[in-house]
Amino acid sequence: MDDQEKLSISDPDVCEVGANDGMADQGEMKSQEEDLAPDIEDWSKHQVRQWALKLDKVDDSVAETLFEQDINGSSLLLLDATDLKTMGVTFGPAKLIINARDEVVKLKKEEPASSRNQPGRPCKPYPFCRYHDPYRYMESSILDITESGASDFIEPCHEYKAFINTTDETKMNKFTAEVIRFAAACMNSRTNGTIHFGIGDKPDFIHGQVLGVVVEDKEAYANELKSAIDGYFEHKHKQTAQICIKPPRFVGVLNKNMTSSDKCVIEVDIVPDSTICAENTYHTFNMDTKKAKKKAKSKETVRTETKPQNNKQFFVRDGGSSRDLLAPTTGAKPMVEYNQFVDRIAQLTQLRKQSEEKHLNVIKSSTQGSRLSQMLTGGSLSLDKSHFERYVIVTNKSHPVQLESLGFLVEINPTAVLDFDPESAKHGLQCHFEQQSTVNVHLPAKYKITEGVEDIANKLKLTRNTSWVFCNGGIEDEVPSEIDEWLMDKGASIRDVISFLCRKDVLPNKRYLVIFLLLSTVSEKMDPLVETFSTFFQELKGTEQILCICDNERAFTSWRDLINARCGINISHRCIYELSFAEVNGTILSLLSENRRSRRFLPCGGGSKVLLEKKVERSLKTLEVLCVNQCEGGNEDKIEIEENFYKGGKVSWWNFYFSEQPGSTPFIKRDKFDFIMDTIIPDLCSLKKACVLLNLMHVPGCGGTTLAMHTLWSLRDRFRCAVLRDCNADFTEVAEQVVKLLMYDHEEQVPRVPVLLMIDDFDDKEKVFELQQVIDKECAKKDIKSKSAQVILLNCMMSESTEDTEATEDTVFIGNDLSEKEQEQFDKKLVEIEKTHKNAQKTFYGFMIMKKNFSTEYVEGVARKTLKSFDINQKHAQLLAVLVLLNIYCKGASLSVSLCEEFLGLQPKPFCGTIKVEEGFGKFSTLISNCSVEGKVVFTAVKMIHSSIAKHCLQELTTTHNVRKADIADLLLTTNELYESTQGKDKLLQDVHHILVKRYHSLEEESDFSPLIQQIAKETPGLEETVLQNASKRFAKDAIISQLLARYYYLKKRDFSEAKVWAKKARDLSKDSSYMADTSAQVIKHELKNAIANCKEEPISPEKLSMCLKMAQSAIDAFKETQSLAKSESLQRLQIKRDNNPFNTSGCLGEIQVGVLVIEVLAKTPIFSSDNVRHDLMSEVLSGNVKLRDVERSDRCNKHRTYYIILRQFEDVLYTLKYRMKVNFDFLDHFYVNLGTRFGMKDIRDQVAQKELFRCFRQYAELFCKTDSADLLRNKTMQKMLKLHQTRQKLEMQKADTYSGILNFLSNGTPPEIMERIARQYGFVFEPGHNLAVKEKINFLYVNVVLSCLKLESPLLQPYENLMQQLCQVLREPVPINDSLSLHFIAVVLLWPQQHQASPACRSLGNYISQMRTSYHAVMKEVYNGKRPIIHFFLGKKWGYERLVPLGEIKKCIRVEQEKFSSTWENGFIWKEKKVEQLLCRVTGMVMGNVILAHTCIPDLKVEVAPVFRSELRGHAQGSKVSFFIGFSMRGPLALDIN
């Protein structure tokens, strides 16, 4: 065994002294000094003296003093400076001794726990004579090779040095001396060898224990060793020694928890090659370091002459040690052994040469490259067409040298990476991967199922970006675990991750591959990767979906044996280990097509292009980017792609690419294509708004989406084109990514190439406008300076109407009627198709339907022929029936391939050639096609090829096969197999929910239920109840379904007790929802309505009266709760800022409706029967002006006492009825008049509600706005009071008693004559002697302004100057808070300065605007979420009244339907109309932050105006001058069309 290091290591020349001291007979380089024990308290007094003698700057006399005082280790630990001083040691040396002792104690404490003889795990030494292998030692592990001598000359011998107790001054001497000694021994013995520094030995450590040493300057070791070789070896052998002794290798040491430490093991390999060493012998000189350096520098001749013979040494390997055969011995013949060894050198050289020849590497023929290709692709040998849709990687500690050979990981874009390297994010694989691709970093806890599986997958973005799971800490302060502790600490959470990934509703069943990428050797049975493999093995039920890759046989053997021991299987056939990672990388990359390998480019204007980096493209996860060189170099199967498209599948970029190749006819160009390309797109680009909209409205199945994609394909070199993947994506995220695409490599370049973004499958135009606005805001946020459109949204949207409409500046319609020109193109294309597809006309129904110009007879024939053998008892028939039903009642509905395979019993296997899902549909396969669905998870699905096919299939099923809609719906809801854990389960549930719940509203007919439920009720009356009951079981915890049942029972069945049960369940499931509260209220209201309708007796009985009033009170309370919840919801949405659902007005309308029903009930009582006096009496009681006891007192007969008793029980309701109805009427008027839909679209539900509101108001006005009694006309004073009262009632009856009611006359088509009558009535109210409220004075201003808009020449119109005076007078009076908004709005409108007519009050304009905004937020805050303030007036060019241009006048300038008007408004086309420009006045101003300071005709008066679209300020620097139109809304003046 070799020496143990001392605290002070001896110099090389100590070997010489030791020989003379009686130790030379051992032939070893032993020190004369007594070994120091590792613990100070074990030191003898001799060892203390020895230690003290070696201390720098401490005199030897101090050591002698300690020796004389019998100071041993134990007493040394107790000494302090005072004790030493008492012994005669001066203060300076005393401090040095105490400090040195404390350092030794500290070093001992810092030693790893393993150094205190704790057992470690066996490990292999670093591969011999290698320098770049990704191999590291783990702290405290044990090298499984002992120190040894020569064996077969090639197998290296080993020597271990702890090297931990050396001082900075001596460690380099120790290193070089030990290496030279070991190297000379190996060279003379002709054996390979490795000497290790930082490996412990007995007695203080376990033999071969990894300790590691801290190395600050690695280069110094290499330089010192080179210099030492020159000094120690004879001149003639110096060159040979430099070749045989390899440079030092520094092998990293990991902590037990797999994190990096600052330690390493220093290793030096010795290779005495026979061709270099020949038959030479190698002597070394024995000298100290200084002499060695001096000799290295001196001349060669001098060096040779000055080396005395007795200084030479001759080392050989002797067991585990190196022995000097020239060392003096006590034997009689000291040179005998040396001479014998030298005589054997020729023999040793020959043996070495034979061993070298025997160990020459034989180039093995390996098939692992082709095996890797087979296993990675499932047999397709192409990653483009791999059987596996997804890849999951499991990996461990990486080494920097490996990272450049792992580029294939970026290309296969793994769904998830389970990384056991806690330093991966710092300088490992994750850090390297993230530089090239996008990742979402997670801890395992995120995968625990605490909510819906697909909801978790959606939050993790699991199928969109690579999810990087840190399985052993390393992020978010998660502490890494040691191997022994990992299973307890983190094993359960990793099992959660694996179980989650292996679920059928997360990744496609049998279509994903788990790759164990062993970057470090797995050598322990407790290694986390072994447990991880076992879990995957159990979850996947075998190894068919597992592939293991390592880069050497040693790592493979260890892995195979560990898996065999853990799982009892031989994993060899699923392992790749004969290839280096560089070869693995090259093999995998070669499986990509040229198109997948090639770089992708975006246009940059002027024909230039910019490289789209893979990481950037993957970060745009909501967008599918269409590049300039899309499809080039691809090897896609043209036949297969064309078949899918012509059959009825969605068009792909490949279809356009193939049509451009030589020998192909061009892609069919629709008639509207050139109009879009040559007219609409250029016009849109000229607009100033950041984001503009192009609507492509189309009938389902007529090629609208294909035309939109054809447009993108043709413009891909002029625009940055992309398709929105999922219309339900977060719009904020979409906007950020769209702007990122716009600005990519474009930050400072102006003008930029605009983005052309196609959006498809939106079912609500409001959502389209919302996306447009969010992108607009993002452009403003990024301060994109450009004065033209930057983003064009190509909105491809299905139209409810099949009638062709004329194209406008931003809207094109594609109908189901081909022109002659289009039909000719289809005829030519069919000829081409039939050349390569023999049965085209029999299977390519999607193409043939269009070629036949959407012939109903053709589609009926296809449906009839294909469904001829339909049998609902067969599974594939059931699946088709479900698909048909879903497709008709839910646009874009589909079923996942995984679900179909599971349902049809098709067992997919993880290799190519397995049965395709279409084949499982048998004869019906021609009616379906594949598609990709971007839901919460991305998955492959099947759908009906055409909407008209689905429609006629359903008809055929009903008429020919007696399969009714109720039967299919029942099958859909009761078949549990459809809802098992498969991909797309959540999407199916959403679609089923949609067809049950989604109603379509119209003004003509209020839809109570979804079209499916209504048609089932019509086709098979009564079965709809069964369907709904089954729906409630399928969606047991869904409040909306419970609400639907409640609505069904109170609307359809009139079963109010059952309705209340379901309404209560809905409320329990969604306690804070105003809509569920409304349903509970509606049940009571309808029960009341039903009770009144069934009450035929006149008058109503007291009992029924009591019952009705109790119901009314309950309903009113319930509707009030609905109102309260609605306001809370609205405020919450306002805080979220992403929920644009509008305020729920049903509680207000419901309370009004109950009020009308109460009036109806009271009219049936004898107290308030229908004669005039009693009519007025009811009015007064319900207004709270007359009390019931007074009415009862005046009822002299007292025959209605029972009724009075009942009525007085409900006094609270009755006395406030009119007030509450009026409050709700006014509230809803303010809401509907001042707030429009966010984008000007008509909301049918709002219109239906307003229609009902109008009906209720007529009932209200009939009672409260008439005074029929003649008793009041007895004297003139009463007559005058009555006339004023009746006038005010008439104004209220016409809704002219509120400013919002008056403003509404601008848009509801009121004839000017009615407005004049109202003006006349207000004229009477304003007569002297009448006590006027402030509200009436304000209303008078509105009446005149509105009348001026309807009939400017009216004689009843107040002179403009008079009106201004009245305005100023009102402004000087105290104004109630409730009237502040209306007053300040009309003040801002009228006081906007104009030449020669500026009122002094104009100076306060800024103050009035501020007050108006404050009032707007105070009054409307609870209700304006999801709405936009309506612009009532625009600033015109004329004077006086004519200066105010109502919105209606603008609409007259472009006579289009409301939907198209909204679109031209949003895009800004409206401001290009000459008629509009002639009407409106352009105002100038200065940009200040996010607002404009508008100039006025008063030089020093500037007014703050907010832009309607903030993006219109982009391109305008702070302080720059702009011009714009001004609109007046309740939120303040707004700037439009900013230039």
Characterise the protein shown here.
The chain is of the alpha/beta class. Helix content is 48%, strand content 12%. Strand 19, helix 22 and strand 20 (546-549) form a beta-alpha-beta unit. Helix 37 crosses helix 40 (947-959), helix 60 packs across helix 61 and helix 61 (1380-1391) packs antiparallel against helix 62 (1405-1420). Residues 1-34, 112-117, 288-309 and 1270-1274 have low confidence and may be disordered.
Give the tags.
1539 residues; alpha/beta; seven-stranded parallel beta sheet; six-stranded mixed beta sheet; 65 helices; disordered N terminus
Task: Give a brief outline of the structure.
The protein has 1539 residues and is an alpha/beta fold. The protein contains 65 helices and 41 strands.
Contiguous uncertain segments of 5+ residues:
1-34, 112-117, 288-309, 1270-1274
Amino-to-carboxy terminus distance: 91 Å
**Percent helix:** 40-55%
Main pleated sheet: 7 strands, parallel
Task: Name the structural class.
Answer: alpha/beta
Q: Report the principal-axis shape.
A: elongated
Q: What is the count of β-strands?
A: 41
How does the SSE layout of this entry go?
Elements: H1 14-23, H2 45-53, H3 60-68, H4 73-78, H5 81-86, H6 91-110, E1 122-123, E2 137-138, E3 142-143, E4 157-161, H7 171-189, E5 193-197, E6 199-200, E7 209-210, E8 213-214, H8 218-232, H9 238-244, E9 249-254, E10 260-270, H10 274-277, E11 284-285, H11 289-297, H12 300-305, E12 312-313, E13 315-318, E14 321-324, H13 336-343, H14 345-358, H15 368-377, E15 390-395, H16 400-403, H17 408-412, E16 416-419, H18 424-427, H19 429-434, E17 439-442, H20 453-459, E18 466-470, H21 483-501, E19 512-517, H22 528-540, E20 546-549, H23 553-567, E21 575-576, H24 581-589, H25 594-597, E22 600-605, E23 608-612, H26 614-619, E24 623-626, H27 638-647, H28 653-659, H29 671-685, E25 691-698, H30 704-714, E26 720-724, H31 731-743, E27 755-760, H32 765-781, E28 791-798, E29 811-814, H33 820-836, H34 840-843, H35 845-851, H36 856-866, H37 875-889, E30 895-896, H38 897-904, H39 917-920, E31 928-934, E32 938-944, H40 947-959, H41 965-974, H42 985-997, H43 1011-1019, H44 1023-1034, H45 1039-1053, H46 1056-1069, H47 1074-1094, H48 1102-1136, ...
Parallel strand pairs: 1-3, 2-9, 4-5, 15-16, 15-19, 16-18, 17-18, 19-20, 20-21, 25-28, 25-29, 26-27, 27-28, 39-41
Antiparallel strand pairs: 5-10, 6-7, 8-10, 9-10, 11-12, 13-14, 22-23, 24-26, 30-32, 31-32, 33-34, 35-36, 35-40, 37-38, 37-40, 38-39, 40-41
